[in-house]
């Protein structure tokens, strides 16, 4: 029986972020069990939404990200993470271009239950 093929090269987050310029468009850079590791560039305000079935991890790579919550904002700088619990309504916002990394189950929509014109599936990056 043959072992599954496995990528052995490390993933460089900065290199992956340099491959695109679209804002609010998630790119999948790795997979972990049933989870996707995604990066995105963000600027401005997103949309209020929630993920009914999953938590969502945000890690700021560069810039500053405000995660607006109904009971108070969380502000993140480079190297800081915050986990939005499942079912909690939130709205990411960045006053400057900010690079983020997200960890969430495969197939999680970026707009959660809100839907709308900003809903995009994550695009895989090689």
CATH names the topology of the domain at 35-108 as: Jelly Rolls
Number of strands: 8
CATH class of the domain at 35-108: Mainly Beta
CATH superfamily of the domain at 35-108, by name, is Jelly Rolls
> How many alpha or pi helices?
1
Label the CATH architecture of the domain at 35-108. Answer: Sandwich
Question: Quick one: biggest sheet?
Answer: 8 strands, mixed
Principal-axis shape equals: globular
Q: By helix and strand content, what is the structural category? A: mainly beta
Proportion of strand residues: 35-45%
Map the helices and strands.
Elements: H1 13-17, E1 27-32, E2 35-45, E3 56-62, E4 65-69, E5 74-76, E6 81-84, E7 90-105, E8 123-124
Parallel strand pairs: 1-8
Antiparallel strand pairs: 1-2, 2-7, 3-6, 3-7, 4-5, 4-7
Keywords: Isomerase
Pfam family, one: Cupin_2
Organism: Actinacidiphila alni
Task: Write a brief structural summary.
The chain contains one helix and eight strands; from the N terminus they run H-E-E-E-E-E-E-E-E.
Describe the structure.
With 126 residues, this protein is mostly beta strands. It has a domain at 35-108: Jelly Rolls (Sandwich). The chain contains 1 helix and 8 strands, in the order αββββββββ. The chain has one helix at 13-17; strands spanning 27-32, 35-45, 56-62, 65-69, 74-76, 81-84, 90-105, 123-124. Strands 1, 2, 3, 4, 5, 6, 7 and 8 form an 8-stranded mixed beta sheet that branches. β4 and β5 form a beta hairpin. The relative contact order is 0.28.
């Amino acid at each position: 029986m043959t072992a599954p093929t496995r990528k052995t090269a490390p993933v460089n987050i900065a290199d992956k972020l340099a491959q695109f310029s679209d804002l609010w468009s998630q790119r999948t850079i790795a997979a972990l069990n049933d989870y996707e590791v995604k990066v995105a560039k963000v600027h401005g305000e997103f949309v209020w939404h929630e993920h009914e079935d999953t938590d969502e991890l945000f890690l700021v790579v560069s810039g500053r990200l405000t995660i607006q919550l109904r009971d108070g904002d969380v502000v993140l700088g480079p190297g800081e993470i915050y986990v939005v619990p499942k079912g909690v309504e939130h709205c990411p916002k960045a006053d400057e271009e900010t690079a983020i990394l997200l960890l969430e189950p495969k197939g999680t929509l970026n707009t959660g239950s809100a839907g709308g014109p900003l809903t995009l599936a994550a695009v895989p990056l090689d």
